[in-house]
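wait is this the right file?? whatever heres the structure
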C-alpha cells in the first residue's frame, strides 16, 4: 500500500505517533512514510506497539520480549510459540499458547531458528517493531522499515 502524503502531513503523523510512543524522533524520521502510516493505524486501532533489540549472529538470533507484552498476554516461562515468516512483507508472526517450536525462556527471551537470520527476517543487532494484535505478536526489523535501505 503506497500512501501519497506531503512532508507536512508526514510531520503531523510523526507528532501523533510520538504522543503514544516515547521513542527518539530520529527513529521516526528514518522510517518510510508507509511504515509510519502503518504504525499510526496500529495505535489508532488500539494495538500495543513496542520496540526491542534483537541480538545474536548469523546462526542464532534472540529477542527479549518487553515486560509490557509479557504482562498483556499473560506469558510465563516455558510458553511455546508457533512461528511464521513472510519474506515479502519481512514480518515474523509468533502465535502464543499453541504448542510450537519456540519457547519463552529465562528473562523473557526467545531464541529463533537460524532460518530467520538466513532469510534476514530479523537482523542481528537491530531494533525490532513489536505489535500485539489479537493475541499474536508481530515482529518487523527496523532495517526493513527505513527509507534508505
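ok assuming it is, sequence goes like this
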Amino acid at each position: 500500500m503506497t500512501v501519497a502524503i506531503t512532508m507536512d502531513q508526514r510531520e503531523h503523523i510523526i507528532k501523533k505517533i510520538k504522543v503514544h510512543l516515547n521513542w527518539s524522533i530520529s527513529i521516526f524520521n528514518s522510517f518510510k512514510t508507509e511504515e509510519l502510516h502503518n504504525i499510526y493505524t496500529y495505535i489508532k486501532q488500539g494495538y500495543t506497539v513496542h520496540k526491542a533489540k534483537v541480538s545474536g549472529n548469523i546462526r542464532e538470533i534472540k529477542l527479549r520480549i518487553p515486560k509490557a507484552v509479557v504482562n498483556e498476554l499473560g506469558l510465563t516461562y516455558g510458553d511455546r510459540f508457533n512461528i511464521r515468516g513472510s519474506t515479502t512483507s519481512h514480518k515474523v508472526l509468533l502465535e502464543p499458547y499453541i504448542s510450537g517450536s519456540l519457547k519463552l525462556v529465562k528473562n523473557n527471551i526467545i531464541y529463533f531458528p537460524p532460518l530467520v537470520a538466513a532469510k534476514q527476517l530479523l537482523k542481528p543487532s537491530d531494533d525490532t517493531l513489536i505489535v500485539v494484535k489479537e493475541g499474536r505478536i508481530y515482529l518487523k526489523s527496523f532495517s526493513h522499515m527505513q527509507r534508505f535501505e
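The first strand starts at residue 48 and ends at 56. so i think its the right one actually
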